[in-house]
UniProtKB/TrEMBL annotation:
Name of the protein described by the UniProt record: Salicylate hydroxylase (Salicylate 1-monooxygenase)
Cofactor(s) of this protein: FAD
Species whose genome carries this gene: Ogataea parapolymorpha (strain ATCC 26012 / BCRC 20466 / JCM 22074 / NRRL Y-7560 / DL-1) (Yeast)
Gene3D superfamilies the record matches: FAD/NAD(P)-binding domain
A Pfam cross-reference name: FAD_binding_3
InterPro entries (UniProt xref): FAD-bd, FAD-dep_Monooxygenase_BioMet, FAD/NAD-bd_sf
Length: 428
């Protein structure tokens, strides 16, 4: 238990969608002071398509009005995602939620910028400090000290590292870590729907086409009059090394896509022809953290904790869920909850809350990471052994039957499972 009733100082590193969600959520804790340190000069005005899964929408709805979310998302009809044959465009399968739920909570597509702005709207004024690039955290007996490139260090009781896939805080503790190329480049762009006015056959749904080499293409509206293009293409390392994360691949990129998709459903080529530009993302990964905490002072969230550059479209939901688990654990183990202390005297039990947070998240995340390896085996030992195209299609459909346990994960229930097991630790 912190020994005085001074506010709990929480320093969040990184102001991406997960850091912003952390600032919005943790600011609700009584007797706490939250500061978010972001290295850039202001909010990033760039980004690509993001699928908001059922899990992401549910956790967002815990701090925000879900009706307002509908204003900047798009939901394809008749189902959130149509899986199509790569060449004929025929629908092979519609993805639906595992059980009927209100429309507002069915997975949808959006664009990173409005999503980020929406979360930022929920962060109290004065919490975010831009131009603060964190370099490391030191921990001593009275707390953590966060150091920056060009600013004075600050003290905090708790540091939440949400500084993304290339997290400096994570790499401070994993000095030998190497991010490795996943063998895939994502080409993504979001543009004005008006550019499609002369294109025949544009679909009103969100569609995904998968090729036998593991290439994926996603097309669809993303809300606010925008349209999204995503292609995930297995590329040799020499192609990937010439491309820079989130930078234009320019005319080379467009020509490359046109050539690559010549044999595919002609709609894909028609849409590539109107793309104003294309951004490249050579996808990298590092092993996920087995524990999301270091001692009693540092918690990791979002891509900093699970550095994987996109998996099952759950990057944002996994990050939101990390933060929700942390918030619930801090809240419930505080004296406001255990003794009914008034807000201004609330004290926090960091060791116990970080333990509950870690227990809530680590088992689920380890299982998701394991699934990414299992999927690799399934591709090698099942999909790639198809005799012909129709055998491959049948096998592909069998592989598309699962993953609702990831996309619809309910972190609140997971938290409750952990707190029920450790009830006596919390309340006695
Ligand atoms: C191809 C692709 C497709 C994807 N599709 C989806 C999808 O459909 N659905 C989905 O939910 N997710 C998707 N994702 C994943 C999703 O984009 C990420 O999981 C999410 O953006 C992670 O957010 P974050 O806040 O953890 O990290 P980031 O968005 O990377 O934010 C990190 C922030 O920390 C700041 N920062 C970094 N270092 C420091 C420092 N030293 N000091 C201070 N600040 C620092 C950065 O400037 C940045 O603002 C996809 C990712 C890729 C690559």
């Amino acid at each position: 238990m912190t020994d005085v009733t001074k506010p709990l100082e929480i320093a969040i590193v990184g102001g991406g969608i997960v850091g912003a969600f952390a600032a919005a959520t943790l600011s609700r804790l009584p007797n706490s002071r939250v500061t978010l340190y972001e290295k850039s000069e202001g909010p990033r005005e760039a980004g690509a398509w993001i699928a908001l899964t059922e899990a992401a929408l549910l956790t967002l709805s815990r701090i925000a009005n879900i009706e307002e979310v509908q204003e900047f998302v798009y939901r394809g009809k008749p189902a959130p995602l149509a899986r199509r044959h790569w060449k004929t465009g025929e629908v092979l399968k519609y993805d639906t939620s595992s059980f009927p739920r209100p429309d507002n909570f069915v997975q949808a597509r959006t664009h990173r910028v409005p999503l980020h702005n929406f979360v930022l709207k929920h962060v109290p004024e004065g919490v975010i400090k831009y131009n603060h690039a964190a370099v490391k955290v030191d921990v001593d007996s009275s707390g953590a000290i966060l150091h920056f490139e060009n600013q004075d260090p600050v003290r905090a009781d708790l540091v939440v590292a949400a500084d993304g896939i290339y997290s400096r805080i994570r790499r401070q503790f994993r000095v030998n870590e190497k991010l490795e190329y996943k063998g895939i480049v994502a080409y993504r762009y979001v543009f004005d729907e008006k550019l499609l006015k002369d294109v025949d056959g544009v679909l009103d749904d969100t569609s995904a086409w998968m090729g036998r080499d593991g290439t994926w293409v996603f097309l669809g509206k993303v809300g606010l009059g925008k349209y999204g293009f995503v292609a995930l293409i297995p590329e040799p390392p020499n192609v990937a090394s010439d491309l820079t994360w989130n930078r234009s691949a320019g005319q080379w990129g467009i020509s490359h896509l046109l050539e690559f998709f010549q044999e595919w459903d002609p709609l894909i080529t028609k849409i590539i022809k109107v793309l104003p530009d294309i951004l490249a993302f050579p996808l990298e990964r590092a092993p996920w953290l087995q524990d999301l905490i270091i001692g009693d002072r540092i918690a990791f969230a979002g891509d900093a904790a699970h550095p994987t550059s996109g998996v099952y479209a759950v990057g944002s939901s996994m990050g939101f869920d990390d933060i929700w688990a942390l918030y619930r654990a801090l809240s419930e183990t505080s004296t406001k909850s255990t003794n009914g202390d008034p807000d201004e005297q609330t004290k926090y039990n960091l060791p116990l809350s970080l333990f509950l947070f870690n227990e809530t998240r680590k088992h689920f995340l380890q299982r998701v990471e394991r699934q990414t390896f299992i999927d690799g085996e399934v591709k090698k030992k099942y999909l790639n052994l198809a005799k012909d195209d129709s055998d491959w299609q049948r096998r592909l459909l069998n592989t598309l039957g699962g993953l609702d346990w990831v996309k619809e994960h309910n972190v609140e229930l997971e938290y409750q499972k952990v707190r029920d097991e450790h009830f006596l630790k919390i309340y006695t």
